[in-house]
Each structure stands twice: as structure tokens, then as C-alpha cells.
Amino acid sequence: MTTTATAAVLHEPHGQFTLEQVTLDDLKPDEILVRIEASGICHTDILVQDMFQLPAVLGHEGTGIVEQVGSAVSRIKVGERVTISYGSCNNCPNCLQELPYICDNSVQCNFGGSRLDGTHTIRLAGEPVTAAFFQQSSFATHAITLERNVVSIDQGISAQMLAPLGCGIMTGAGSILNTLKVGAKDSLVVFGAGTVGLSAIMAGRMVGATPLIAVDINASRLDLALELGATHAFNAGEGEIPERVREICPRGAKFSFETSGVEQALNDAIMCLAMAGHCGMVTAPHYGEKYPFSPSEIFFRAANLQGVFLGSAVPQTFLPQLVGFQREGKFPYERLIKTYHFTDINQAFKDTESGDVIKPVLLMD
């Protein structure tokens, strides 16, 4: 049975979202229909606007109540609240080894604009539109997703607290805990104090990383980084970041983590490393384009430069852990969140792009 929904439709890159009635396709056997209660906004929702054929329905940090399930769904029941995370194929060697964050078909699953079989989940005025973003497209009152995409977490947690876990917060914390495996007394420099970077700072504090250095150009975010556990905060606008890091870590930092996508930040993240250090990156400068880069500094340091997908996290196990950390007061990610009504989506995007808000969350009701 098809479902009608109200979706925020984007018709031109970086233009205004318009709330329009759309039609959702019938469920496939492994799919579920979720009434969206809340959806986080992520910088990826901004970056992809230049990549997708428009019109499109974006959103990839959804939380809501399951209203229908496909014939092959067994783990999730109607009426459960679920948090939706990233898509995976469930069929490649990595997925079969329970490593869905490095699914062979990750790009197609999450950025293909349709189901893996090429069919569309959303129609506007009878015509298919780009959707199934991260196999959800949660900027809508209802979304189709896959059973393997979702996590059922205790109903006592508000939707606005659950929604942002599925991408940015998971990526920042997971990069430190799962990918880089930072430990007690390890030195860590985090470039960018947005959702991902501040989540990394909180995770670094949890494991006892020290010194724990935050780098950004926004003074208020650097202040927040200090409150959340950073031992030092450097304003990148003042320059000489590698030199300042070495004043604290004379041999260089064991770990650096680049989240901003700024060319100078990536260069500095590499330059501040110690011998055999590790630099993780979750985005790239000049996204999707070539830019001048010399691997010399990586070579001279016998260092590692690693791209990180989704914090190397398996959502079904990692997201409940993050909720547990938050309840214990170890991971206060609620300090990053600002809520908006769904009708105010354009203001939320404006505030995101200006840097006035760290993690906006849309409330559908």
C-alpha cells in the first residue's frame, strides 16, 4: 500500500527546501516504513547538493516509529521506535563479516539516489525523485528504510536525542574509539569543532587522551571544546598550528583527526604528527575535486593517513553504547543540539552553514 507524506524537496543546489506532498513506494520484503519524529541535519546534506540530480529529498539522521514492515522483516516490529543509520548491501564480503561500514557498495547504497536495484522510493507529482539518501531520506514525515539500517533503542529517550546519533556523532566518537583506537595518555589533535570534531573530543576525554587539543577558527566552539574535555584549544586563524602542537608535544602528536575538509587543516594535521603517527580524515578538501597534495610528509614520518567511514561503527551495537555513555554523564552530546520545527528547515540550514548552530535537529510534530 502506497503512503503519502510531506517532504522537504530541494529543487536547486543550495536553494530553498519546499514542503510538498510526495508518494512513497510499496515496501520491498526487507523494508520498513517509519513515521519520522525527528531528523538531524548534517554537513553531508549540504555537500551532496552539488552531486545529486534534483529534485531530491535528503536527510540521513532519522528517528521515528515503525508503521509497516515488509514480509521478510523479523527483527523489527510495528510500533517500535527506531534510529536510522547508514545503508549497506548485506551481501558483499565485508557485510558478511559484519563490517557494513566498509560495504563494497557503500557509495551506491548511500549516495545512489535510489534503492540498490535502481527503483525509487519517492515520487513527486507521479515522477520519481532522487531519494533513498543513506537508504532513508528522513527530511519527510515518513521514510522507507531497510531493516538492517535501523537500531531499536529504549523508548524512554526523546526523539531529538536519538536522531543525531546515526551519522555525525557516531562518526566522531567511532573514529576515536573504533578506528584510531586512541588510548589513555595518547596525544590527540582534533581539527574542526563541529558535531564530528566535538564528538571526537568527548570520546578522547573518555579514554583519557592527553594532551587533547582542539583546533578551529570559531572561538565559541573552542570554548565548548574545552568544556567538553579538551586540554588545549588553538585558533587556526592565528596560524602555526604544527609549531604550537610541538610546544606541548615536542616529538609530535601520536594521533590527529581532520573533520573540517579545509586544505590547510589537513596539511597541519599531517605536519603535527610524531614519527609513525596516525591521521584520520572523515572528509576531503575540495570535495570531489583534485587538489595539490604531496605525500612527502607522510613518508618522512613513516605515518599513516586513513580515510574513515562512519566511525567504523556497527550501529546496532555502537549506538546503544553511546546512549549508555551519555546517561552516565561521560558523553554529553546533548550540548551540541538545537531543535527546529520541520517548517523551519531553511532557517536550520542557514544556521548550520553560518556556524551559528552545531547540531540542528528537525522535529516533525
**Element order, helices and strands?**
EEEHEEEHHEEEEHHEHEHEHEHEHEHEHE
- Using only C-alpha atoms, the radius of gyration works out to 20 Å
Distance between the termini: 23 Å
The whole-number mean of residue pLDDT values reads 95
Percent helix: 25-40%
CATH architecture name of the largest domain: Alpha-Beta Complex
What is the count of β-strands?
A: 18
- What structural class should be given to the helix and strand makeup? alpha/beta
- If helices are DSSP runs of H or I spanning 4 or more residues, what is the number of helices? 12
Strand content: 25-35%
CATH superfamily (homologous) name of the largest domain: Medium-chain alcohol dehydrogenases, catalytic domain
Counting structural domains, the number is 2
Task: Outline the structure in words.
This protein has 365 residues and is of the alpha/beta class. It has two domains: 3-166 and 332-363, Quinone Oxidoreductase, Chain A, domain 1 (Alpha-Beta Complex), CATH 3.90.180; 172-309, NAD(P)-binding Rossmann-like Domain (Rossmann fold, 3-Layer(aba) Sandwich), CATH 3.40.50.720. It is 27% helix and 26% strand. It has twelve helices and 18 strands. The strands form three sheets. Strands 3, 5, 6, 9, 10, 17 and 18 form a seven-stranded mixed sheet that branches. It is globular.
